[in-house]
Write a structure and sequence with these properties.
Blueprint: H1 5-18, E1 24-27, H2 32-45, E2 49-53, H3 73-86, E3 93-100, H4 106-110, H5 115-132, E4 136-139, H6 154-174, E5 181-184, H7 196-212, E6 220-222, E7 229-230, E8 233-234, H8 240-252, E9 256-259, H9 267-271, E10 280-283, H10 285-307, H11 317-328, H12 344-348, H13 351-361, H14 369-383, H15 389-407, H16 413-420
Parallel strand pairs: 1-2, 1-10, 2-3, 3-4, 4-5, 5-6, 6-9, 9-10
Antiparallel strand pairs: 7-8
Helix pairs in contact: 1-16, 2-3, 2-15, 5-6, 6-7, 7-8, 10-13, 10-14, 10-15, 11-13, 11-14
């Protein structure tokens, strides 16, 4: 029987006492290639992996589906199973909802849906998560469009969090499904747990309210460790003391500290995660960017082969990726200052800026039909000169995942966790 994510985190917290723990990676499932890269490394090095899907990435068809492969919850779960079977995977992976709840799709916020409607849609999405077999649900009711730029009152965050956990537990039990884990809190500053005092107040009050309703404590609580992603870089600074204090506080309640925005961290910051007792880190856009970079390197190779007449009908991969990345407009959330308001004309007139936008937003376009056609054409061209393009892409994505896994002491973690629970 599969070890539940709650038990896995209990094992991690036990291992922290002996100094031989690990920090689990939560990986944004940007593509099937990303799934395969993650599962191959997890299989080879014996550590658990989490796939963390936001509602913009994976959601019900009737709510707009997701930009990642057009996956809904069921087709996403099936895709992970297919990749696992393809590579004879025998490790431990978890399907996780990242930022579930009301207003968590861009459209819901932009439409300023009223509270009741937003909660109804958030609950509907959670039911699909539960029915499709998700292992962990993040309960995040802090994206309130009526409070944008303000700190959402802790009482409101607390009340909505408990109500949503109660709803999900009721739906899970009604379907006689196995235990699932919950993740609470958010890395965002509006309603986020930005100080150790607020953090402990939140956990303490949450515990009281959950016990009143006979509900489980969360598996993870998200705390601010100083990380912040902008463009394709780590714009924040990892704060060891804050991370350590938050982790110790969470452990007193039997909960693991989860860090968000863990992309592009340097090795020293990564190595600090074990002594700071962070149970898990989410990394998403970085792996999408790595895949984009892999395609661009293959496109550069294809260009050279064409110059030497080894490719006669070259694909248009780079230009199509760039065009779709700019027009996706999803790069805006990663920019700073006035650059969030750039026009298409301004970007295309500036080659350096165009390259930056492609680096940031290329992964949002992998499921666009025109992009897929060009990539397949490029793969076919390269295969004629004995270059396996897809294999190269998968291995390219593996590079940063491997760096994190090494610093996070993940090799052999599944066996250590299981042994700690005996």
């Amino acid at each position: 029987m599969k070890l539940s994510i709650k038990r896995t985190v209990e094992g991690l917290l036990e291992l922290q006492k002996s100094g031989n723990s690990a920090t689990i990676l939560g990986i944004g499932p940007m593509s099937k290639n990303c799934l395969q890269a993650s599962l191959e490394l997890s299989n080879d090095d014996d550590y658990p992996v989490m796939f963390i899907a936001s509602r913009n990435q994976v959601d019900m068809d009737e709510l707009g589906g997701g930009y990642v492969n057009g996956w809904n919850q069921f087709t996403f779960v099936e895709a992970v199973k297919e990749v696992a079977e393809k590579i004879n995977y025998n490790g431990l992976y978890y399907i996780c909802r990242d930022h579930g709840g009301p207003w968590q799709r861009d459209k819901e916020r932009n439409d300023h849906l009223p509270v009741e409607k937003a909660m109804e849609i958030g609950k509907k999405s959670y039911i699909a998560d539960i029915e499709s077999g998700f292992d962990l649900l993040m309960i995040d009711p802090t994206k309130d469009p009526f409070e944008m730029g303000k700190v959402i009152p802790l009482d409101v965050v607390l009340e909505r969090t408990v109500d949503l956990i109660e709803f999900c537990e009721k739906e899970r039990k009604a379907r006689n499904l196995p235990e699932i884990g919950y993740e609470v809190g958010t890395e965002e500053t509006n309603g986020g747990l930005t100080t150790t005092e607020t953090y402990e107040t939140f956990i303490n009050r949450l515990q009281v309210e959950l016990e009143k309703r006979d509900l489980p404590m969360p598996t993870f609580i998200v705390g601010q460790t100083g990380t912040l992603v902008k463009r394709t870089e780590q714009a924040g600074k990892f704060n060891f003391k804050n991370a350590y204090d938050l982790a110790q506080m969470a452990k007193r309640y039997g909960v693991g500290l989860k860090e968000h925005n863990g992309d592009y961290l340097d090795d020293v910051s990564l190595l600090e995660h074990i002594p700071s007792d962070i149970a898990a880190t989410n990394v998403a856009p970085q792996y999408g960017t790595e895949e984009t970079r892999a395609y661009l390197k293959l496109a550069a190779l294809e260009e050279k082969l064409a110059e030497n007449e080894l490719v006669v009908n070259k694909s248009n991969t780079r230009a199509v990726l760039l065009d779709h990345a700019i027009n996706s407009e999803r790069w805006r959330k990663w920019m700073t200052g006035d650059q969030r308001n750039l026009t298409t004309k301004e970007i295309t007139a500036d080659p350096k800026l165009s390259d930056e936008i492609l680096d940031i937003a290329g992964h949002y376009t992998f499921n666009d039909d025109e992009v897929k056609v060009e990539i397949e054409k490029m793969y076919t061209n390269l295969s004629k000169v004995n270059v396996d393009g897809q294999r190269y892409v998968i291995d390219h994505i593996k590079r940063p995942i491997r760096d994190y896994a090494e610093c996070y002491n993940l090799r052999g973690a599944t066996t250590r966790i299981k042994n700690s629970l005996k």
